[in-house]
Write a structure and sequence with these properties.
5 strands; single chain; 115 residues; 5-stranded parallel β-sheet; Rossmann fold; alpha/beta
Length: 115
């Protein structure tokens, strides 16, 4: 699993939850969209949790490239922007789901912790 998130607290919470309650023994972390794209291409994670707003480029900016680099990965946009526009754009560019920040981590896990 790859978490692309600039907020270290959010990243730690997601990583810890997924390691404890999910099937993810290896959790990779990138603090910006560019680094996330590089890690995704190199490591081919099965799942990617992608923040939308980050310094140096938004998740939306790399979403299509992430989908191209990891066509079989489950990609969940994890965003504080809960507008229908963001949902439509993210899904059009390759996100499998969009989950609002602040929702329980169980909801996020339900999209990515599949067999």
């Amino acid at each position: 699993m790859l978490i692309v998130e600039d907020n270290v607290n959010v990243c730690a919470a997601i990583g810890s939850y997924m390691s404890r309650y999910g099937r993810w023994s290896e959790v990779l972390v990138a603090s910006d969209a560019g680094q996330g794209l590089i890690l995704a291409a190199e490591r081919q994670p099965e799942a990617i949790v992608l923040d939308n707003r980050m310094p140096g480029g938004d998740g939306i900016d790399v979403l299509e490239d992430l989908r191209g680099a990891c066509p079989d990965a489950i990609i969940v946009m994890h965003t504080s922007d809960d507008s229908s526009d963001i949902r439509l754009i993210a899904e059009r560019l390759g996100a499998d789901a969009v989950v609002s920040k602040g929702r329980p981590l169980e909801e996020l896990a339900s999209f990515i912790d599949v067999a």
